[in-house]
User: Fold this.
Amino acid sequence: MFFIEAKRIIVVIFGSFLLAISLNFFLINANVYASGFAGFAQLASSIFDDFLGVKISTGILLFLLNIPVIILGWYKVGKGFTIYSIVSVVFATIFLELLPVISVSEDIILNAVAGGVIAGVGVGISLKLGASTGGMDIVAMVLARLNDKPIGVYFLLLNGVIIVMAGFLYEPENALYTMLALYVTTTVIDTLHTRHAKMTAMIITSKADELQAAIHQTMVRGITILPAKGAYTKKEMHMLYLVITRYELYDLEKIIHETDPRAFTNVVQTSNVFGFFRREGEEVPPPAESEDK
Assistant:
């Protein structure tokens, strides 16, 4: 478990570093705006400087914008997911403050594409391991819980505000190049993060009742418990079969490790489910003879 946690922290920090590279080396001087709260912070920094004569760095604004969203994530997405968001935001702020703002290229299209790809990789690899880069990741994950659509769709919709403001406050071309950067970012995110919002977990355990109770203390998911038998040991065991959403995977891993570290778990991507699958705000139906997922 320690290795898993350390790996996530390293990936989150690396994702924050990529975000800072994307902004400071490609997007800021090109007046092309990044995805998510980084883009909002970048745009707000430009507005403060150009219209109010007040210089506030993108890193500081990114940190301030994330405070209320991290509180939302703590209660709506999950504590584990949000802790990594805090790590990401802190390190992104540090990297943005330490790295110089330079222009690698004078070609605005190259800046938009390269910046979009690098930012998308930073967000995508973090989400893939059940972590987050904070900000709009959390907002998009909350919305994804409601409608089961790819998370990149919500990035694109929420980022529309950045596009409109960039075009309205500055040159219309800024909006077009920002649109290009955001499209590249969301495409990379969906490619790395996966379009499958649901996952099926099959857990072989000798502590089925304890594990079922521990899971239901944290998440509201139906579980089917099937008898299982070890082929080599001939030991009688049970298999817990349940469908979860990707944002719940971190919590499930932690529960299994704490309840039965010797359990064998196989997690596979699920393209679709039929029947009742609880979404945010829905009531759980009364159980049938065989409990549904």
In short: Residues 150 and 176 are 23 Å apart (CA to CA). The beta strands are 198-205, 224-229, 236-245, 264-270.
